[in-house]
Recover the amino acids of this structure.
């Protein structure tokens, strides 16, 4: 910049000082707007986190309520299917205990009772040292001793 331009700018600011004030005011307003945008963004993120936290609390409470209802229903089912209650219900609808002479057995031709494999006496295989190859009976020290002896023989 040359001196004429500098003098011109000085003269322009002296004639209209409101221009400088307007620049300061514009800069201050820009800072305020930037801070407002940052604050708005912060509030948005914070509110979303709070909403998510509240939803998690609601879902946790719902899970707890569902577990309580399930436990209550299981207790009711256990009560309704207990031996004493089932016997009373059977008596109420006309059933009675069976006498020993009332049992009838039906023979089915061709049916044979299968015995479980566990109870059958299967032959137990026993491994003796004679059936195991000698490589598997050798200790690490024996193996190393053989290797050292073989390498000593090769050197001689």
């Amino acid at each position: 910049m040359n001196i004429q331009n500098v003098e011109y700018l000085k003269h322009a600011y002296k004639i209209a000082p409101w221009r400088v004030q307007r620049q300061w005011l514009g800069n201050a307003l820009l800072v305020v707007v930037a801070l407002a945008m940052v604050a708005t963004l912060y509030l948005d993120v914070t509110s979303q986190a709070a909403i998510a936290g509240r939803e998690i609390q609601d879902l946790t409470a719902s899970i707890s309520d569902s577990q309580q209802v399930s436990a209550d229903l299981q207790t009711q089912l256990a009560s309704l299917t207990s031996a004493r209650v089932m016997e009373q219900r059977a008596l109420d609808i006309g059933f009675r205990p069976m006498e020993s002479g009332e049992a009838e057995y039906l023979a089915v031709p061709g049916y044979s009772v299968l015995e479980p494999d566990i109870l059958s006496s299967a032959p137990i295989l026993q491994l003796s040292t004679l059936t195991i190859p000698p490589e598997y009976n050798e200790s690490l020290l024996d193996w190393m001793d053989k290797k050292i002896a073989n390498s000593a023989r090769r050197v001689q």
About this structure: The mean pLDDT is 85. The two ends are 98 Å apart (CA to CA). The longest helix spans residues 18-80. Residues 3-66 form one domain.
